Amino acid sequence: MIVLVPILVITLMYFMFQNAPHRPGAPTPFNNACLILLGLFPLFLMFIITSITMQRERASGTLERILTTPLRRLDLLAAYGTAFSIAAATQAILACTVSFWLLGFDTAGSPVWVFVIAIVNAILGVGLGLLCSAFARTEFQAVQFIPLVMVPQLLLAGIIAPRALMPSWLEWISNLLPASYALEALQQVGAHTGLTGVAVRDIAVVSTFAIAALCLAAATLRRRTP
Amino acid sequence: MSGDHEAAVDISQLRVIRGKRPALHDFSVRIDRGSITGLLGPSGCGKTTLIRCVVGTQLVASGSVRALGLPAGSSALRHRVGYMPQDPTIYSDLRIIDNVRYFASLYGFGRGAADSAVDRVGLGDHSTAYCGNLSGGQRARVSLACALVCQPELLVLDEPTVGLDPVLRSDLWTQFTELARAGTTLLDSSHVMDEADHGGDLVLMRDGHLVAHTTPTRLREDTGCTTLEDAFLAIITGNTRRQAG
After folding, report:
1. Rounded to 5 degrees, what are φ and ψ at B12?
2. Is B155 in contact with B117 (CB distance < 8 Å)?
3. Are strands B62-67 and B70-71 parallel, antiparallel or unpaired?
4. How confident is the model at residue B15 (pLDDT cuts 50, 70, 90)?
5. A59: nearest CA in chain B?
6. What is this model's ipTM?
7. CA-nearest residue of chain B to A62?
8. How confident is the model at residue B3 (pLDDT cuts 50, 70, 90)?
9. Is B237 helix (H, G, I), strand (E, B) or coil?
10. Which of B58, B85, B150 sits opposite A224 (nearest CB)?
């Protein structure tokens, strides 16, 4: 599921945009959409998977139990991070392969950078998911964090309307959200051959957000509870 | 073994507040090494809270809890204390053997330890079954195996034999007795008085207070009752009368 869903969605988009008109010289609409999807799908999917899995660990008592074992909290987070990142990497490799080879997707920059951004986004998704799981009492509440945390972030990142066209207060909010930088980095890679300074800065910003989210998540893992 | 004179569990003046209500009031008790101590009392009297204090997952308002001579929950203790929570906390989407192997690996034990823990609880023939398909009693046994796998010095079991059939129950009690003979200290809770006869020591609780720390034989002698159920009732009504008078 994790591996195949993005490929199916990307293929679906390929056919959706098959007959869409585009100006010669400009990237095709599919190219734009595919770039966004490749980069941001891992963020979205990993957030959902981690927040629900971790919420289950908390609610079922397995988390409390494994915290009575010699396991360190950082080990637990690292294990979660790596397990889901491997899943995300597999997903990103397959999705990139299918898009670049079979669907005629193309970027000015190297496909490797699209992959790197996808992985950083996946780790960010894991961090945010782990963090949000602390605030959900049930799986149902965990699911509700998707519209609360993910959707506004993706909308403000400039997927539908470009950020420059937003009212300045919205642009300010958007400046505070990690997905905005993730998308900007992707667009830089899509439009420029070399790795631009803006892209490097954006990747660094997203990585910082990811690490911060993981650290905050670690703080919510309490051995002793009331 | 170092510090044999030290108690396995030493609780003094423990106060715990859960929600807004006090769950334990100035609770003090000492449990000797190598003993089997049954924690008994009506449901809601604070047994689980006390057990969570011993394994170090409960926030404590005041007082001290020491296990094996160290503050409860300290990192040096985590290798030496096995804990089976009241609800079977296992992963339903994993097989029995994988659940136990997972806990074994958390304690640094290998597959052999996991296999023998599964055999111990009588699930050796089913070890590749998925836990989601198991009955309540089987799930409890998987959870127990996850606690046994670390070969702890102190084994803390929250209602370990609830929902198990009599044959299995007596089998487990035989094993618990063997473990205790080999030097393991067992602390288990139950709200069924019949279970109490298996244990060497009894800690009777009510409403977060220690009612008595005794043995089944002594409890019968003191109260003159033949069944422990009656003895417990007698001691509680005696207590209430004393408090009222």
Report:
1. -135, 135
2. no
3. antiparallel
4. very high
5. B89
6. 0.85
7. B89
8. very low
9. helix
10. B58
What's the gap in Å between the CA of A54 and the closest CA on chain B? 12
Q: How many angstroms separate the CA of residue B218 from the nearest CA in chain A?
A: 35
- Burial (0-12, 13-18, 19+ Cβ within 10 Å), B154: buried
Q: What is the pLDDT of residues A58-71, one digit of tens each?
A: 888 899 999 999 98
Quick one: DSSP state of residue A149?
I
Tokens of B114: 């996991």
The burial class, CB within 10 Å (0-12 / 13-18 / 19+), for A154 is buried
From CA B92, how far away is CA B29, in angstroms rounded? Answer: 36
**Signed CA dihedral, B207, B210, B211, B213: sign only:** positive
- Residue A207 C-beta-side C-alpha neighbours within 13 Å: 10
Tokens of A99: 């898009």
B interface with A, Cβ–Cβ < 8 A, is 17-19, 55-60, 73, 75, 78-79, 81, 83, 85, 87, 89-91, 103, 106-108, 146, 150
Handedness of CA B171, B177, B180, B186 (dihedral sign): positive
Instruction: List pLDDT tens digits, range A116-166.
Output: 899 899 989 999 998 999 898 888 888 898 888 888 888 888 887 788 888
Kindly report, residue by residue over B183-241, the tens digit of the pLDDT: 999 999 987 777 777 778 899 998 899 988 988 888 888 888 888 888 888 887 776 66
CA dist A211 and A174 (Å) reads: 19
